[in-house]
Each structure stands twice: as structure tokens, then as C-alpha cells.
Amino acid sequence: MPDRDGAPNPNPSPNPNKPERPPLLKKSKTIAAHFSGPLFPAVRRVSSTSPSSPRFSSESNTYSASSTSTSTSASTTHDANFGFGDRDYVYPSFLGPHTARSRVNFKSTSKSQRNQLELSKLPARSESMPSNLTSEGGGAKAEPKMKPKPKLKAEKDLHALSIQVSNPASSSALSSESSTSLKFVCTISVSHTLYLRNEVSKLQEENVSLRRVCSHVDLASAGITELKEVNSLVYFGNADSRIVSLYMVIFILVTPFVLYKYLDSLPRIIDLLKRKTTKKEEVPLKKKIAYMVDVCFSVYPYAKLLALLFATLFLIGYGGLALYAVGDGSFTEALWLSWSFVADSGSHADMAGAGPRIVSVLITSGGMLIFAMMLGLVSDAISEKVDSLRKGKSEVIESNHILILGWSDKLGSLLKQLAIANKSIGGGVVVVLAERDKEEMEMDIAKLEFDFMGTSVICRSGSPLILADLKKVSVSKARGIIVLASDENADQSDARALRVVLSLTGVREGLRGHVVVEMSDLDNEPLVKLVGGELIETVVAHDVIGRLMIQCALQPGLAQIWEDILGFENAEFYIKRWPQLDGVPFEDVLVSFPDAIPCGVKVAADGGKIIINPDDRYVLKEGDEVLVIAEDDDTYAPGPLPEVNKGLFPRIADPPKYPERILFCGWRRDIDDMIMVLEALLAPGSELWMLNEVAEKDRERKLTDGGLDISGLENIKLVHHVGNAVIRRHLEGLPLETFDSILILADESVEDSIVHSDSRSLATLLLIRDIQSKRLPNKDSRSIPLRHSVFSQSSWIREMQQASDRSIIISEILDSRTRNLVSVSRISDYVLSNELVSMALAMVAEDKQINRVLEELFAEEGNELCIKPAEFYLYDQEELCFTDIMRRGRQRQEIVIGYRLAAAERAVINPAGKSEQRKWSLDDVFVVISSGK
């Protein structure tokens, strides 16, 4: 059994059944017995020395020769008295370890001599042995001090032999036979020692291998028996951990199914444990959890990605645990294999064994599922991003751009005018926000087939009533905002425009630019201005077109002049300050610009009020700005005053107004406003005939609801006819040859469809001209103007053109493509209502001050745009420059802005070369801004 230090007893009792005799503590007694044979004397020793005596310490590896040694007794006993059960039977001292070796006495040697003697007799260390097996250890990392290593049997025999050989004097008592046998035994012992040394080397190599496997076990301090015990413990410890891992894998696999089956019973179990009773019916726990998951995935956009990441980590950890349970590697290696199976579906093919293969296939299947889900999420994210870009949901990062809110038929003309306006600066950015699909808007814009000249048009899908959509198009950084009227009726369209204005006023960042709102009804204008304040500029489309049509009916050719002035293609209005003109009277300012025509002054002292056609004696003051008609804002500048020769010219007063007969074909919702304008412009005794499908009683009610006092009309008389303007029978019942002007209106019933409205207007125009040509007497072909000579003498269009010389027809055209049909036939004048409104909106969007100018020019009172004959300013074939004519026009309180020659089809506004002399004819006409007095 092991001693108190934990080392095994080198001399165990051969008979475990017989109890060991108690040791003698005071006195040692040695009994020697001789057996037959010279080589194997047996020794019977009884000693009081404990087996753990210091004499067996491995520090010196020598026997102590101290006073505890006793002399050998010479008395002999009989062989029969010698019992093997009563003694410790041992081999001779040179063959094995003994409890005491006192047979040979030798002198005590010093410690250094003993160490040298011992080192000389021990076997040399093999080169293959690791250095960390030495007792002192010279490795990189010092190991703790080891316990004394028990001596092996071969070492003890070698030590005993060395003692006996090195002390021949002490064996003088042996016989000669014993000496011979001793030599023989020494030879045998040396051979056996070499064999044992070889065995020790093998055991040391096995020890190194065991150290590598069990690195955490201190084998240096353990014996052979302990090493086996440690190996067993390690083996069973690993086996136990893998079994526990296998149980954990099974438990984790079964738990979700058990929870899913008994999840609804969990609240009742908790209530029973808490001894509570709930009477009310609760929602099942499964539905609650499903609802929470649904809300989480709906509210948080990254919930799907996080769930996928958690599933991936769980699969790697769970798979690693399963691989560790069925495999023979470490847990970290199992985790790495699990990740490789998840990431690479083909890496499980090298697995060996049924268990690892099954687990690896399952992990690979889960990895394929996870990567399929990840691919689906990535694909959905990319598709969602592309759809958001395609549907116009992304944010616009722009500044100093024009923002258009809404969609209507005027958008094409509006974009065209804005592109022309931005041409001088190399193009700009126009953003359109409407409740339409982005692709549809872009396709409709592409159908315009117009060169935008560097201007970019960006479309976004959204509602102008939502602040988030307004912020998406950078509404706070736009230099101008245009709110288009919708295609609904007037009241609904104006109500929607009012809500859009309220949304714009709610922008926290504020608005940098002004807002131009297209209104449908003049009565709703004050409410929008009240809500928007100073930032709001309104353009009443129907009111503008109605007044323009009346002016064009009274003055043929005025529509084309308005197109040139309102559009950005030719000359338009600009307002700018010129400090060098301070202190100069307006009559000199009028001729100071060789490339522009001054029309008015913006008075700084009067709060920025614009005065059109001011008095000649008005002197410009500091801060005043000049209103001009020019090609572009950077194409004009004041120059030196030219020499002007007013000369003598005829003083002809304006002819008196005569009663006129006018026909309205169709019904407009603002027809009451048009009647009020006619009441202000026409002479007393004039007649207004109305042909439409509205009943006569309903007409009076609608006109009265619009604010028209029918009984208070003094200059005009209303004549009602019920009928359809596209039916020839209804038109033939009217005296079409007697009307001075005929206005074909876009009927209220079809104004939502520009194609249908224009088709109706064109059919009415052709029917009226055909009826007129048959009723009016034919004129001589020589009287046909030059512009009509391109047609054959037998053409039906020629007859209509002859009739057009006696009667003026103004058609309201909504689509610019219809204009080509009307202009080629030259049988009617026309008003492009949508295009003119778009021009006005674009002009006001570029400079909101222009709206004051347009409002005054379109009003029934104040200054207006007129066409005057040449006989008011010159004599026939008189040679003058345009500047001289401008000076003569000031004598009539007019500003001459252009002219149209008798042989020309279009008027020239702001002509170049104003100082050049030329001959004028009385058939020429001049375009002027008149005070209207």
C-alpha cells in the first residue's frame, strides 16, 4: 500500500491474509539464515524502521550509513523454523529493492561524491527525449518542483551492484566459490540492466505521448498506476461531456414542439401555481406571440435581417454542439465545421461515420435554407429600391429649382416655357410632384418631342397635401412653386388648391420662393390670397382667357401678339433697376434703350407699385425700377439719347364706338364675367346672342348666381337660343352673316377632354364658315389678299376665306396640335387658352411682379393692349424711324411696342434697329399700350 507521501510501497506483503506484525520501535534485530546453494542467501530482517524512512529518499539515491545500521547476528537457526509467512521474503540485494540494505557496510561519502557516482551509473539521456522531462527543467517555461520519483527496479539493482563492486574489501568474508558466482551474477545483471534501460526508454517515450494528450495532468509527479487512473478519468470525462452534449441537442430539438403544443396551456398553469382564477376569456398565447411577431416585422424594417442573423448564429451553435456530441474533436473545431457546412453546401462530403454525416447533412440543409432566405431578402431589398426609384419615392436633393404641384393638360406648355426661360443660364431643374405613376408622367413628357435645352425635368409620385411628400421634393429650397388646377369642376379644383396652400404654409423650414396658384373661379381668389399672404400669386385661368377672347374678338390679331409677349420665345416683360437713370424723366427713358421698350416704372416710394404708361414728366428717383419689353434680361441696357424728329403728323381722334352684334357658341362657367367685360367695352345698343344647350330659365339662374344683374345691363342685350353648335340645322336658324364677331367657346360639358372640346370647336367653325360663304355675296378674285392666293380658285376654303373678311371668328383651342389645323386654313383666329395660361404661369413663376402687369392689362379698366392703324401716327409713304413713331405715340398717351406690316402675317414686338429710317404704309398697324381713356 502507498506510504504517507503518496508513493507506492516498494515491498508489498506477499501474503495479504496474514496481518503484519507490529514493528519494533526500540531495537533492531537481524536474523541471518543460510539456504543450500551459494548464490541466493535469504535474509530475515525485523526492523523498527518505517518504510517511509528517510533512508529511501530520492534526493541522494544512496543508502544511509548512519547509527541506525546494526550488526548481523552470527547465530543460525534450523530450516524448519524459517517460515515464509512470518517474514518479508526478498531477493538478494543486487536483484531487487529491500526495506533495508545493511548486509554490506561502507564508508560514508560526501554529497557531491555521491551525486557524481550516481550520475556516472545512470543511463545517458536520449536525444529524442524532451528537455522538459528532466527534474530541473531548462525549458522556456519553468515547471513547478516535482515530487520525488520512485526508483525503478533496474536502478536499485545497479546501485546495489555498484556498492558491492566498489567495495571489494568488505567482501573478504566470502568464499572463493561465492567470488566466482558473483562474477557470473554481475555479468547476468549487467545484461539485464541494459534490457531494463531499453524498457525505461520506451516508457519515457510513452510518457511523452501521454503528456501531449493529457497536457493538463501532472504526470511527472504520478506513478505508473496513477497514470493509468488519470487516463481513465480523462477518457470517461470526455465521454461524459459528449453524452451531456447529446442530451442537450435532443432537449433543444424537442423543446419547440412541446412548447408549440402546450403553449396555450401555459397561462392556466401559471394561474394554478399562483392560485388565481381568471374568468374572462383571454386571447390564446399563440395568437399573441404571432401578433407581436407580425407587428415587429411590420414596424421595424431591420427585423427580418436581425431574425436571419439570429437563425444563422443559432444554427452554427446548435450544429457545433451536435457535431461535438457525435464526433471525436474539440468543441471549437466542431463550431468551425458547423460554420463551414452552413457557408459551403459541399464541405460535408469529407465527413466519416454515420453520426457526423447525418448531423453535417442536417446543418448543410439548414444553411441552404438560410442562404435562400438571405438571397430572398437581398432580392426584395433591391427590388424595393428599384421600385421606389421607378415609382418616384426617392428624395430630390435640389435647390433653386421650379416646383410644379399637380398635373393637367397645361403641363406640357408650361415645361416648354420654363425650358426657354432657363436657356440663357444653360438650363435649370424643374421638379413635378403629382398623384400619378412616375413612369406614366415621364412617358407623357417624352411624347412632347420638345428639346428642353439643358433643363432637367424630375418627376416624383406623391400628394401635395402631405408634408412628407413636399419635403421629398425640397419644397423649402425651390425658388418658385406652381400649383396647377385639377381637372375637376371649378369649386373642387379651387378647394384643392386652397388645401395645397395650407400645406405649403405648414412647412417648418419656410419657403424661399413665391407660390403661383392657378385658380378656376375668380370668386375663390380672395380666400386663397387670405390664407397664403404675400407669398401667393394667383392666376385665374378662365377669367384671363375669357377677357383675352373678348379683346381678340374686338381687335383681330391680338391673340398672336399676346402669345409673343407672354411666351419666352420672343419679347417679354422684365423689371430691373438702372441707377444711371435716376433723375431722368420718363419721356427720355422711353428712348434710352436701343434694344428694349420701356413700358412703366416700379415706384419704390409707393411700396413697389407698378405704374404702366406713366406721365412723361415723371422723374425716376432712387430705388425706382424700369419695366421694359425685351428679348432677355441680359440683352438690353440704357444708352445715349438719340436724336428724335417728331415732325408733323395727323391729329386723328379715336373713332366713336358703334353697336356690335356678337355670338357666343357654347357655355362657360365664367360666362357671367365675360358678359360684364362686354358691358364695359361695347357701345350702347349692342347685342349678345347665346347658342347653347342650357335651358333659358337655367341660364338666368346661373347668371344671377354668378353675380350678374341682368336687368342692370345698359350697353348690351341678351338674346337666347337653345341648340347644339355642331348641328347644322341649329346654326342655320341664326343670322350668321350679320354678326361682327363670333366666339366659339370650349363648352363646359366637354372641357375636361381637350380632344373632344377641340373637335367640337373645329366642327362648329367649319359649319359657320360654310353657311357664311353661301349667304355672303362672292367677291372678285382680284380682291383676294395675297396670303390667300396659294389656294385654287375652285377651293371651298377660298370661299370661307372670303367670308372671313366680313366676320371675325375666335375659336378657343385647348390643344396646341389643333392650332395647326386652324392656322393652315386661315379661316379663323384662335386663342390657345391652355398655352396662354401656361405662359402666364411661367412668367409669374420667374418673377411674381409681372402678375401685377398682366392683371392690369387683362382688366376691363385701365391700360390695355391694342392694335391701332398707321394713320394715327404718320402719313402714307412717310419715311420715319421707329423711335420717331414712339415719340409721336406719346402725344396720344400711348407706348408703341411693335408693328405689323400690311403684307406680313405676324406682328413684330420690340423691333431691332429702332433708329433706322423706313417708309410706312397706311395699311400697316401698330401695337400699343393705351391708357384706355
From TrEMBL:
Keywords (A to Z) from UniProt: Ion channel, Ion transport, Membrane, Nucleus, Transmembrane, Transmembrane helix, Transport
Domain RCK N-terminal: 399-540, 659-808
Membrane-traversing stretches: 244-263, 305-326, 358-382
Source species, domain of life: Eukaryota
PROSITE patterns, per database record: RCK_N (PS51201)
Biased composition (Polar residues): 105-118
Main location class: nucleus
Coiled coil: none
Signal peptide: none
Protein's cellular compartments: Nucleus membrane
Family membership: Belongs to the castor/pollux (TC 1.A.1.23) family.
Identification of the protein by name: Probable ion channel POLLUX isoform X2
Taxonomic path: Eukaryota, Viridiplantae, Streptophyta, Embryophyta, Tracheophyta
Gene field: LOC107813321
